[in-house]
Amino acid sequence: MAEVIEFDPVDALHAGALGLPGQRTFMIQARKGNATLSVLVEKEQVALLATEATSFLDRLAREFPEARPDERLAEPSLGAGVHEDVPLFRARMIGLGFDVERGLVLLELREAGDEADDPDELGADEPDDEPDDDDVDGHIARFYATRAQVRAMALSGATAVASGRPECPLCELPMDPDGHRCPRLN
Fold it and tell me: Which of 16, 64, 120, 148 is the most core-located residue (most Cβ within 10 A)?
């Protein structure tokens, strides 16, 4: 049975990285009141989330225009990036949703237990069926945020991904600050 944690709504939402390029840890953090929840994610997940969240928000703006857009962005207390915190779990699945009545975006992060390795177990063949919280082990974090907060999170995530190590122009592998032994020069 999954342990569900909800921040409804969040006071702050951020995606970013800690550490030096090549040794960074990527996280999504949310804050509600005095509580902060950090979830480990992969760099590729942050990059994809930034792209998909922006596209999702653009579709929402067409389908459900905001009468008065909420300009509240990510709370300054999370600073220019994520802050040191012990992550509760590593997200294996990330989803976006929208609560039409309240005008809030849902960001859901799932740890997913061992049965998530079997796509049939979670109903992957039927895209309209969502996994039941009772059928999944691990943690589930649900963050409800304004569109502006999600857009700011997407921007901070994209910035964190782009600020990594530069790519070698020959082999396109990341170059280490200590030097790079390009396999194409071998």
Answer: 16
Whether 94 contacts 107, CB under 8 Å? yes
* Sheet (strand 104-110) strand order: 3-7, 139-145, 104-110, 93-99
Q: Whole-model pTM?
A: 0.78
Given a contact cutoff of 8 angstroms between Cβ atoms, the answer to whether 158 and 47 are in contact is: yes
- Closest to 19 in 3D by CA, of 171, 169, 172, 163: 163
24: number of Cβ within 10 Å: 17
Reading the chain (186 residues) residue by residue, the pLDDT tens digits are 789 999 999 999 999 999 988 889 999 999 999 999 999 999 999 999 999 999 999 999 999 988 765 554 444 433 445 677 888 999 999 999 999 999 999 999 999 755 444 433 333 333 445 556 556 679 999 999 999 999 999 999 999 999 888 888 899 888 887 778 888 887
Q: Is 143 within 8 Å of 30 (Cβ atoms)?
A: yes
Domain positions in the chain are 3-185
Q: Where are the beta strands (DSSP E) in 62-121?
A: 89-90, 93-99, 104-110
